[in-house]
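The records we work with from here on pair a chain with its fold. Here is one such record, which you should read through line by line:
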Amino acid sequence: MSNQNIIKKIKSDLNKNIDQKYKKGAENYFKEKIKVYGVRSPITRKIAQKYFPKDLDKKQIFALCEQLLKTGYMENSLIALAWAYRLKKKYQKSDFKIFETWLKKYITNWATCDDLCTHTLGEFIMQYPEVLPKVFKWTKSKNRWLRRASAVIFVNPVKKKKYLKNVFQTANALLQDQDDLVQKGYGWMLKEASIPYTKKVFQYIMKHKSKMPRTALRYSIERYPQKLRKKALAK
């Protein structure tokens, strides 16, 4: 099956599964304007699995992923990112440029940002930690999604007791970021870090809570007992 035929078949299947009520709900849920067919995620994932091009090599599949991402549709992005993650055993260091380009060019909402970062990029930095200095540069970007990505990329690795130093470094860089979605991103990162590093993360939060926006603070302490949450929120 040619690349264009794959894209056409995906589009056809998505069109057959549109749920208008779900579409309206999704459009209202995001603050940003989104492009969405209105297909529920479980169905979209099945379509992704159905049309995964097993006969193509990684380079060809990544090219297809980019075609899907270019459309701007949420469902196409979910399919593209599912395919990219499925190739995780074939990642090479040079693939970082591809993933970073996707992040810069095609990520326009928190859902696709988090999908790319918690799966493909999160896995990638565990295989190639030498790219971490490049990831840290995202904290200074004018692009809100790169700044959010600089934190969310650690959500899964830190639960596996990796990169606590980088987590704190990133939190320091984003500490007073004015964007609420960036605040939620690094707050989420600290929340996940608090699972394996309960004491160290709480000490960090208590040290920096006076400078942390309330949104980030509330996210970061969600997994702590009520007594400690009250302590962190106390002025």
